[in-house]
């Protein structure tokens, strides 16, 4: 019985080698079958971001929505800060706004946010006016806001850990002890590339949890992006081959083939190849054959829309982006409005859980350097779900229409102040309310006798 089992096992292994999809007892390796890479590196994600339009849209649209408007750094949270209401700017906040504008701070942080989505993390390198090289730790930086000279966003491929803290008694055990920055590792388009060792105190790691151990936002949908590339590439190549495919030359068995004088068979075949190659290079070239039949192998392409749509939907789901927003397809007001609302909520969540914590790490670092004073700093940002002015005006119109319909009832549903508040307008003063009333007297209004011509 054992001999029979051995024969069956050997036969199964042989069949499994020839037909792995039918006779293999092991788990099916879809990655190997479908040509997907098993291990992904930063270069894979970076190349995809550069060359794949759908992948780039997934990153850029997310960052563009998150950073739709620049935030404000306030000395402390104030009433109305989270509702987009007007706030009186302090002297220090005005100085910050001007200095951050000169440094293009918010733009550089938005770029770091995009790079962190492509890679596992990104770096924000701080160039400080402390008179020390990048490799040395920061103590105190003189000059106040002018102590921050430059903010350098860095790709994961440019900023790597060169030394880890292995001292188990250290507070930073297991964390980077030194970084290596090499601008040339990722093409930047500049002729002069900077390269230096940089101390962690001069680096803010921008990622989901503030460490270098996160994952790329493109990882979950990477296979879908490869599928999309295959479909697009195969479709383009297939149409080209149908338009100008290589001919198949057929010589009948009874056709005498006489080689030109002094030409070997190999030379004759090379000459035929040159003639066919010259014919293929132009649509209007003539291919002259004698005793040889030229045939074309047509390529039949199925409609790619369904295959493309499945991969596109899967990638959109991996990025939490509504499909219509990802590809810019607006096919219905209701669907578009719902998608836009959901998209705004998603990016509000990104702000609260990823972007603002990273900004606050930078702020706390600047406070520890003495560049910023110790305050209860607060990042103020307009709510992405807040209605647009057109939506607010539409809401006010509907409130006014409701009042008009309810006039017969004797009471207004919405007061004029409530309607003005719907478009973020302040209530009218008495002077504005009664400016067309001839009986209005500002002195009477001051003591509460508004619009009355009678004696007290």
Give a description of the structure.
By secondary structure, this protein is mostly helical. The chain has 3 domains: 256 residues, no CATH class; 52 residues; 58 residues, no CATH class. The protein is 45% helix and 11% strand. It contains 16 helices and 10 strands. The protein has a 3-stranded antiparallel beta sheet with strand order 3-2-7, with helices on one face. Strands 4-5-6 form a 3-stranded antiparallel beta sheet, with no helix packed on it. The longest helix has 37 residues. The protein is flat. The N and C termini lie far apart (119 Å).
Quick structural gist:
By secondary structure, the chain is mainly alpha-helical. It has 16 helices and ten strands.
How much helical structure, as a percent, in the residues? Answer: 40-55%
Q: What is the makeup of the main sheet?
A: 3 strands, antiparallel
Radius of gyration: 35 Å
Count the DSSP helices. 16
Widest beta sheet: strand line-up = 3-2-7
Q: Helix/strand/pairing class, anyone?
A: mainly alpha
